[in-house]
């Protein structure tokens, strides 16, 4: 039997599939299941949203309403009236002046345009024509190009999604008269916000002492800074609601009432202060000096009646001058006092019993102390020293060598104690901000002891020196003060601020002896240019070198004079100090005449009866050594 053969199948074409696939068809139950899943998810979302809505609207609605109210309510401080500053006779020195901030709002130019000619550009041009005439500098400097050219792409997007131009505070203060005139123009985009500004009545009088405030009414310098909290008082605290248009009218609620600031009543005599500044300015100009200061104290109380500086500035425009010129020279200067310190040394030596008035001291013009030398400047009849002067002659003719011998006889301990008793090395705490305390060193060699005796190697302030000279009235040193009291503007009651208690330094006998010596300095010594016609006066000259890097600056001096009058019963103590005068630098010839004119004016203002009839002035000396 022949086996059968399997006949192979004919080959398939490449285009012919091996099998035909049948499309998959979903069953009806699968479609229904998917629909139910979508519905369930959507229903779940809606349930969650509904529950959230119930939670927000019902459970925590009160909390969200509170948060909304807080977000629309602002708590702000509203400053109260700042206190005034008066002089001792209740003349106003500094006050607040009501006025307006001039504001430009460019957005108003695009609102309520009634006709085609009333375009934003036309409104801007009308405003510019008026303001550039009234305030050309402010308009040129403070108007941004976006406003000047109305570039729409420079507008800023606000919180509510709108685009707006920023408003411009064009002028910080204008008077009510100017505000009324500008309103008459009916200019679109011009706003006036009520404000006040701090104003010194006589801008240059005591400008450094009074100080200044910021545009927000915060004290920056001088007494305005030192007494800022007292002058500012306590601000009102109010809450205000706001919407997209701004503060809601009538929404302000006072949370705490404010307390107006208290007024400062100074010890200053504004008339005498003006006279002191005028005389000082004339002297600084005459001698081509760098600067100068004058301090006038009431001899009985230590009250500061005048504290002048030169050059001065306008307290209403303080930024027009550098900060260096805004110093309070009487309290901020630190300088070597020179021969004005000799009075202190001799007083300490007499009080301690180191010397008696009749003692004499040799002066051969120079004194060697170790490797150093102390010398006297030749002057007048004393070209080779002062011979053997007694204590009074030492002061009268300002002998450095004899004073150095007296300081060495006292020793370092007694000298340090004398300086401390007279108030050197510590601030007077008179109420002036930033007052310097001077420099009294701890290391005292023999040469330092000798130098300090005649005013070198020690630094003091003008205020310290003039306060020290109050000791010679009756042996008691007075502490100066500048604020007499605080005045409540609502009641007018003045609360006195007492000065620090006076300190007994010398016996009355020693003080009287020193006054006699100081009088002789003016009668026949280095201080003759300071003599008064109708009053006996006493004082001491000082010519001190100005220290620099590595030693004293050649040809640079402080020329000073400090004295009392009338000398038998002093009413005033006056110090004059002028820095680096040219064409003559001695204290007697430079500062003495200024002292004379200011002291005469102080006595006249106080109605002090003249002690004698007027007589010709003593001869003037072009250069008298100190």
Q: What would you say this structure looks like, in words?
A:
It is built from 20 helices and 24 strands. It has 626 residues and is of the alpha+beta class. The longest helix is centred in the first third of the chain and has 32 residues, at 28-59. The termini are far apart. The model is unreliable at 157-161 (pLDDT under 50).
Sum up the structure in keywords:
single chain, 626 residues, alpha+beta, Beta-lactamase, 7-stranded mixed β-sheet, 5-stranded antiparallel β-sheet, 33% helix, elongated
What is the topology?
Blueprint (H helix, E strand, L loop, with lengths): L27 H32 L1 H12 E6 L6 E2 L5 E13 L15 H15 L1 H7 L2 H4 L7 E2 L5 E2 L3 E7 L1 H8 L6 E11 L6 H4 L1 E2 L5 E3 H5 L1 H5 L3 E8 L2 E2 L5 E4 L6 E4 L3 H17 L4 E8 L5 E7 L18 H4 L9 H11 L13 E4 L2 E4 L15 H6 L3 H22 L24 H8 L8 H8 L1 H4 L1 E2 L5 E5 L6 E3 L6 E2 L3 H17 L13 E11 L2 E15 L6 E8 L7 H4 L1 H14 L21
Parallel strand pairs: 2-13
Antiparallel strand pairs: 1-10, 2-3, 3-6, 3-7, 4-5, 8-9, 10-11, 10-12, 13-19, 14-15, 14-24, 16-17, 18-21, 19-20, 22-23, 23-24
Helix pairs in contact: 3-4, 10-20, 12-14, 12-18, 14-15
């Amino acid at each position: 039997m022949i086996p059968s053969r399997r006949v192979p199948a004919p080959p398939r074409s490449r285009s012919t599939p091996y099998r035909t696939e049948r499309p998959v068809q979903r069953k009806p139950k699968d479609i229904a299941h998917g629909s139910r899943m979508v519905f369930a998810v959507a229903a779940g979302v809606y349930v969650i949203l509904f529950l959230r809505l119930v939670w927000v609207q019902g459970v925590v609605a009160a909390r969200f309403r509170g948060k909304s109210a807080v977000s629309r309510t602002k708590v702000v401080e509203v400053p109260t009236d700042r206190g005034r500053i008066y002089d001792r006779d209740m003349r106003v020195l500094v006050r607040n002046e009501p006025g307006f901030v001039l504001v430009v709002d460019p957005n108003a130019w695009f609102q309520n345009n009634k006709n085609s000619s009333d375009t934003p550009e036309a409104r801007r041009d009308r405003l510019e024509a008026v303001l550039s005439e009234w305030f050309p500098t402010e308009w040129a400097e403070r108007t941004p190009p976006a406003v000047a050219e109305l570039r729409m792409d420079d507008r800023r997007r606000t919180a509510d999604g709108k685009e707006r131009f920023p408003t411009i505070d064009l002028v910080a203060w204008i008077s009510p008269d100017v505000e009324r005139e500008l309103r008459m123009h009916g200019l679109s985009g011009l706003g006036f916000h009520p404000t006040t500004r701090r104003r010194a009545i006589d801008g240059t009088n005591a400008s450094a002492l009074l100080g200044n405030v910021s545009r927000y009414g915060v004290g920056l310098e001088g007494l305005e800074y030192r007494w800022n909290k007292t002058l500012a008082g306590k601000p009102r605290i109010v809450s205000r609601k706001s919407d997209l248009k701004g503060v809601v009218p009538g929404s302000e609620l006072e949370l705490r009432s404010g307390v107006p600031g208290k007024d400062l009543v100074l010890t200053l005599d504004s008339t005498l202060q003006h006279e002191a500044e005028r005389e000082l300015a004339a002297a600084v100009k005459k001698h081509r000096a760098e600067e100068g200061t004058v301090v006038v104290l009431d001899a009985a109380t230590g009250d500061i009646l005048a504290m002048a500086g030169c050059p001065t500035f306008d307290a209403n425009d303080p930024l027009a001058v550098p900060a260096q010129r805004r110093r309070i020279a009487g309290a901020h200067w630190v300088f070597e006092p020179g021969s004005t310190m000799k009075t202190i040394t001799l007083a300490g030596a007499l009080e301690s019993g180191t010397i008696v008035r009749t003692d004499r001291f040799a002066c051969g013009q120079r004194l060697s102390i170790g490797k150093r030398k102390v010398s006297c400047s030749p002057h007048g009849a004393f070209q080779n020293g002062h011979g053997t002067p007694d204590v009074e002659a030492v002061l009268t003719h300002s002998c450095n060598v004899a004073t150095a011998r007296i300081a060495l006889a006292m020793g370092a301990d007694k000298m340090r104690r004398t300086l401390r008793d007279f108030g050197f090395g510590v601030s007077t705490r008179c109420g002036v901000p930033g007052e310097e305390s001077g420099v009294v060193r701890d290391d005292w060699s023999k040469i330092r002891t000798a130098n300090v005796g005649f005013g070198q190697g020690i630094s003091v302030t003008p205020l310290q020196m003039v306060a020290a000279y109050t000791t010679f009235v009756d042996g008691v040193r007075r502490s100066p003060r500048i604020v007499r009291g605080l005045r409540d503007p609502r009641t007018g009651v003045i609360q006195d601020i007492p000065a620090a208690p006076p300190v007994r330094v010398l016996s009355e006998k020693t003080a009287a002896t020193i006054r006699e010596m100081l009088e002789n300095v003016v009668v026949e010594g280095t201080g003759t240019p300071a003599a008064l016609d109708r009053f006996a006066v006493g004082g001491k000259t000082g010519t001190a070198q100005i220290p620099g890097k590595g030693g004293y600056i050649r040809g640079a001096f402080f020329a000073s004079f400090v004295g009392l009058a009338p000398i038998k019963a002093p009413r005033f103590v006056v110090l004059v100090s002028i820095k680096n005068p040219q064409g003559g630098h001695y204290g007697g010839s430079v500062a003495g005449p200024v002292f004379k004119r200011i002291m005469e004016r102080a006595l006249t203002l106080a109605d002090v009866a003249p002690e004698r009839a007027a007589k010709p002035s003593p001869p003037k000396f072009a250069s008298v050594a100190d």
